[in-house]
TrEMBL record:
Residues 141-365 form the SUF system FeS cluster assembly SufBD core domain. The lineage of its organism: Bacteria, Bacillati, Actinomycetota, Actinomycetes, Micrococcales. Belongs to the iron-sulfur cluster assembly SufBD family. This is SUF system FeS cluster assembly SufBD core domain-containing protein. NCBIfam families: sufD (TIGR01981). SUPFAM superfamilies: Stabilizer of iron transporter SufD (SSF101960). GO terms for biological process: iron-sulfur cluster assembly. Coiled coil: none annotated. It comes from the Bacteria.
Amino acid sequence: MTATETTPAHLATEDRFVPIQTRSERPTSFDPADFGTPTGREVNWRLSDLKRLAPLLVDEETETGAEPAIEYGLAELEAAGLLVESTGHDAAPRGEVFRPEDVVSAIAWKRCQNALHIRLPEGQVQEQPVIARLHGTGADRHGNAHIVVEAMPGSVGTIVLHHSGSARYAQNLEIIVREGARLTLVSVQDWQDDAVHASAHQAVVGDGAYLKHMVVSFGGGVVRVNPSMRLAGHRAEGEMFGLSFSDSGQHIESQVFMFHEGVETRGDVLYKGALQGEGARSVWIGDVLIGQDATGTDSYEKNQNLVLTDGARADSIPNLEIKTGDIAGAGHASATGRFDDEQLFYLQSRGIEEEEARRLVVIGFLMEIVQKIGVPEIEERLAEAIEEELRRGAGLAPASKAGA
């Protein structure tokens, strides 16, 4: 595999545009030129904030000799012996799974010469979660990255990628969970308000292996994290969880894809979001594909959004594609709404003030995801972040209707 291998990336002519509707048919390419500049009509860009993402759509060298856009805190990885040298685009296993699906990920592939390779050794059980800290050094700084997380056969562990500071940052994350391995991967977006972050996560799960993938987004001006998981092995299992809290002017987006390819695979997708403030925006698109050979599959996806104020908007689009009739079960659900008046009335009838009642409802709604992380340090930080978000919005009137 080389970076020059390409597949035509869109169907467009001067007088005709044919959008690609099915996620499984989305073309890929390692060459950014094959994609062109998004217009906003493309199915994978039509709900995105292209204006603020514009710096990440340009294929050009970043300034040499300047302070790096991202400072890496890898002390925990080094101490645990989990870092592996990865030099050049052809350094295995880079590219074993990852295929850029848009211009941003193709640019990140091209412009990032050396990958950050994290490997859980075969048969090793990592007792404690390991955190990689990625800190942006400035909103005017532009960075590209390719990260490989590889769980070797029989390994067990939890890797956390914690993003903070500010930058214009394009990131590819390639996740390989080999036979019998059990991996938890948590990506936390705790950026400052002026950060712009676009990330493509692509994972494959082997025979009898398990992957818990979590995306938690609180900070940042625009945060677009698009994860996909391919359950390729026999009895492979995958869970994809997401949590977001969008404030005024924030755009938080996830386009999620789970592909059941192997026999008797099991998958669960649950994303929750809260929104408050004028112009707060969240976008969730969930695609589940059960392949023609994926007999005995059990799959479910759900997205829930809680709109706390007027002026906020949540887009939620679940899709389910089934190519075999021999499955254990499959379904999807989506709900977007304001506070439940009955819940508020119940709490207030017990002597709880309205502001405190609203706080309890939001915390109860979001903590279902937080408690699935299993990393005390991250769970405590997120609980604090939820409280901070609610204090910031204190005193705002309840929304009169759900987001569009």
